[in-house]
Amino acid sequence: MSENKDPHVAEHGKSVEGVKFVYDFTEGNKDLKDLLGGKGANLAEMTNLGLPVPPGFTITTEACKVYLESGEEPAALRDEVSAHLDALEQRMGKKLGQADDPLLVSVRSGAKFSMPGMMDTVLNIGLSDKSVQGLAKQAGDERFAWDSYRRLIQMFGKTVLGVDGELFEDALEKAKETKKVTVDTELEAADLKKLVTKFKKIVKTEADRDFPQDPREQMDLAIHAVFDSWNTDRAKLYRRQERIPGDLGTAVNVCSMVFGNLGPDSGTGVAFTRDPASGHQGVYGDYLQNAQGEDVVAGIRNTVPLAELERIDKKSYDQLMQIMETLENHYKDLCDIEFTIERGVLWMLQTRVGKRTAGAAFRIATQLVDQGLIDEAEALTRVNGAQLAQLMFPRFDEDSKVETVGRGIAASPGAAVGKAVFDSYTAVKWSRSGEKVILIRRETNPDDLDGMIAAEGILTSRGGKTSHAAVVARGMGKTCVCGAEELEVDTKRRRMTVPGGHVVEEGDVVSIDGSTGKVYLGEVPVVPSPVVEYFEGRMHAGAEDADELVEAVHRIMAFADRKRRLRVRANADNAEDALRARRFGAQGIGLCRTEHMFLGDRRELVERLILADTQAEREESLKELLPLQKQDFVQLFESMDGLPVTVRLLDPPLHEFLPDITELSVRVALAESRQEPHENELRLLQAVHRLHEQNPMLGLRGVRLGLVIPGLFTMQVRAIAEAAAERKAAKGDPRAEIMIPLVGTVQELEIVREEADQVIAEVEAASGTQLKLSIGTMIELPRAALTAGQIAEAAEFFSFGTNDLTQTVWGFSRDDVEASFFTAYLEKGIFGVSPFETIDKDGVGSLVKLAAQAGRETRPDLKLGVCGEHGGDPESVHFFHEVGLDYVSCSPFRIPVARLEAGRAAVQSQGSDHR
């Protein structure tokens, strides 16, 4: 536990003597999230600040771990809970579930990291057939008491006893139909009494037991249910999606109830200190009169904007505004707040650092710097590369002639296009078949999570910015439009009716704009993001027409560039890509794949080289390829003038430059059957057969080609050297680096290097120019990593080829395994994320670290970089910073992401050093 140093924490999840499993809200603070979960830690923090928090206590994550490991709660837990419950009862002047004036409590989950709607909550614990009468008398409101009781049975039945929630919903709908009303607040006490009887019958039938009347039994069972909810399928899926560790467990918060369903002077709401969609300051949130908290989040009843609370209850509104300012200044960040008003008295039920969209994250970070609440280094920790990547996606063309059919609340930005689907199962099924889908629901619930992940975007006809759909979508960076009320969603008939009567059937294409809330029929054309236009130099920060978001991104990127130690290069194979990469901030080319220069019109020359029977034929082919290669490098060095360009000599198996063996066999067979000339095709087929390998990625490729085919590598080295000499003669500043691929032993590198040095010397003599060409190698085989100290004797730089290194360390064929079994490995938790996406620190990463250390022990000035796909992955960039690499290299589009993450890595490592 990094944040909590309490000596009473259980070690390794064991129940040991002296361990404290329960903390009163007055005992904790916001830094104990590991132990008390985010909700419990923040309830304690608000209590410490003197804010109006209902009294309560928190059962720690350590208790949950013991329970999940052993199947039983810790031996001491029941006594601790009893002691804290007794103290709570004394403070409140009433006992849990007593008949005349009952104390009621909520039992709520609260893990270290926010998992909105993924785990369980039960409200109104303590109500029974007897205490409901006392609650009615005490509150002076019979309807309120029976409404609270039906809510308890409904939540308890679904959450604790595993009853299908639809059964309760159907019974509630039938009660409203019988009464001829549309919302549950119009049901009277007598109607709710009947509903309670119906709900208890559902429990008896479905759970094979009566609804428990003992309030302590209710509470204990609810606590266990919250513990169990940590390992539900939806919670596991959410953790995998958000990369939350599975061994943290959840805390449980037992809080005295305050009621928002006591009439029009009561209510419940969610507030944000800034707009979580845009980042703008103002009054943002939702409020619902005469309701409990789940009504707001579930989106079952449409809320009113938080600003309306000023008209409804100005005293509570003013107090809430003051509390929101206090919390934002205290947490120095956007705060997400849950509150309840009970007959004009405001109570705070939760606060947390709020989830936000990518654009909001960048705007808020710079706003807080300007307000003096945080510094530039802290601002970098408030954004991340994944958010920046989202901002670089295209957006809809507002000038397109596509029909707008509705507008909802812009809950999570983006431009999403797909086929309409109306349930999670279909969304997942169609997505796996390659279809892009938009999940359309009246409102989402936690059971829709897998469909939300599969969909391009989410559209709901109910709910607001604080609904389940909005909160989860923002957390995932998924496009979402909520509360599009004019759209009539019929999930049973799998259709949506839009104004004017047009019906959208399942499979019809729709487009949703999470930045404007607009819903369109058909596919809307897209235009480049203004952030991409900024990086490409087509939009300038500081200009009068500059986008506000662009200004924020510009400032954050400037922070990152000032802080970072890692340099960022590009993987680019031609001048066009190199120039784009340079506009995106590349500080050179870390990987130029020369095999891409041999395609197209040059394929025939390569075929002739492979088919050459004599040295003369081979030299003739190489002679024709040389000027073409040289011109490639001249253009590349010109586009990257003054910056390093690492050129990798030919790497892939030669059969990749030859025709497909099956296709060529058919051509030869047809020519023979028609008695047509086929001498060249036959020679080519024989060569293909000769070069055919069962596993070509582990065969004749890389340095092995340079050793087996005389003149191939020396031709490429000569082309590089002559191009560099030509650029120098033109007053350019070429900085070429020659990289030998797939080296497994220092002897391979020594042989190639000796030949290369000789060629470079010949070009220097012929041109009268001194060339400073460094020669290094890729470390992409386990043996190369393990013998890096020896290899460094012949190499001036290492570049880690983490794609091949991952394949060879794991024994995976990337072309095959990702499609065949990676999905199962991710679902079973063997992988948290694909090792080809984020570097495997324990395996591949250990070899990178080992090779870096060994290489620099031999050659202290050894330059170290990485050029695999991991070079642009945010989490991997942090690892490369930690192990001391000099640069990362990635595709041009990912360069801004790598720059940002390199800055964040530097700031975070400085922070850990200070600690």
From TrEMBL:
- Its catalytic activity? pyruvate + phosphate + ATP = phosphoenolpyruvate + AMP + diphosphate + H(+)
Pyruvate phosphate dikinase AMP/ATP-binding domain location is 72-302, 310-359
Q: Which UniProt keywords apply?
A: ATP-binding, Kinase, Magnesium, Metal-binding, Nucleotide-binding, Pyruvate, Transferase
Query: PEP-utilising enzyme mobile domain: which residues?
Result: 435-517
Q: Kind of enzyme, top EC level?
A: transferase
- Please tell me whether the keyword Nucleotide-binding is annotated for this protein: yes
The answer on whether this UniProt entry bears the keyword Metal-binding reads yes
Q: Which family does it belong to?
A: Belongs to the PEP-utilizing enzyme family.
Q: Which PANTHER family match?
A: PHOSPHOENOLPYRUVATE DIKINASE-RELATED, PYRUVATE, PHOSPHATE DIKINASE 1, CHLOROPLASTIC
Q: Which InterPro entries match?
A: ATP_grasp_subdomain_1, PEP-util_enz_mobile_dom, PEP_util_AS, PEP_util_C, Phosphohistidine_dom_sf, PPDK_AMP/ATP-bd, Pyruvate_phosphate_dikinase, Pyrv/PenolPyrv_kinase-like_dom
Give the source lineage, highest ranks first: Bacteria, Bacillati, Actinomycetota, Actinomycetes, Kitasatosporales
Give the cofactors, semicolon-separated.
Mg(2+)
Q: What is this protein called?
A: Pyruvate, phosphate dikinase
| Protein EC | 2.7.9.1
